[in-house]
Amino acid sequence: MIEINQVTKHFAGNKRAIDSLDLTIPNGKIVGFLGPNGAGKSTTIKMMTGILPIDEGSITLNGFNIEKQPKEAKKIFGYVPDHPDMFLRLKGIEYLNFIGDIFNVPADIRKERIEALTKQFNIDQALGDYIQTYSHGMRQKIIVTGVLLHDPDIWILDEPLTGLDPKSAYMLKEMMREHADKGNTVFFSSHGLEVVEQLCDIVAIINKGKLLFYGTLDEMRETYQSDQSLEQVFLELTNDE
């Protein structure tokens, strides 16, 4: 479970990028995080993962405060950033072993998971190549493989399907569903409203740092007394903000 309690983030000029955000992401659910460009999605995720400091409020992951207990909190989540351009000077296998070392994944389990996941994502033949030679989609796959390698309880995914081919995107969506069905937490941001509508149990919509809606799609339709698609409701909610 992820609990975001009255979180505020200021940027230059005292602008509030996030404004008193309250959000709970429960276990056993896939929660989709939606908002137009600049709404505060990536800023929120970077505070959740400890990349950005929190100006006001608190964030806990399975009870661990990300600022007061960063080591404990970071052990239990896997994070896919919105841009997979990192560790470019490492070979694919070096990166995965680096992640395995950080999270103390035993050698036998590590070997088995690397073989299985890289074959599933069709990057097993590229593990000896430097990540800087990878395409965007391959970089996304190696980052996702690193997240799955240590089997964290909480998945925090920022636009995880961007750049993936249809087969890999389908596999990742299936993995997300399986992970949530085991009682774990999956939180992901996306611009793909159809994917969110198809996959998510709960939807959170944010704009200008404020939460506009949080609930199931059925609750959304009931709240707005509408049988419209998620896309139509999303556009109406964010258009006047």
TrEMBL record:
Record's keyword terms, sorted: ATP-binding, Nucleotide-binding, Transport
Signal peptide boundaries: none
CDD domains referenced in this protein's UniProt entry, alphabetically: ABC_DR_subfamily_A
Domain of life: Bacteria
Domain ABC transporter intervals: 2-233
Classification via InterPro entries: AAA+_ATPase (IPR003593), ABC_transporter-like_ATP-bd (IPR003439), ABC_Transporter_VariousFunc (IPR051782), P-loop_NTPase (IPR027417)
One MF annotation (Gene Ontology) recorded for this entry: ATP binding
PANTHER family named among the record's database cross-references: ABC TRANSPORTER ATP-BINDING PROTEIN ALBC-RELATED (PTHR42939)
UniProt name for this protein: ABC-2 type transport system ATP-binding protein
Organism, scientific name: Oceanobacillus limi
Highest classification ranks of the organism: Bacteria, Bacillati, Bacillota, Bacilli, Bacillales
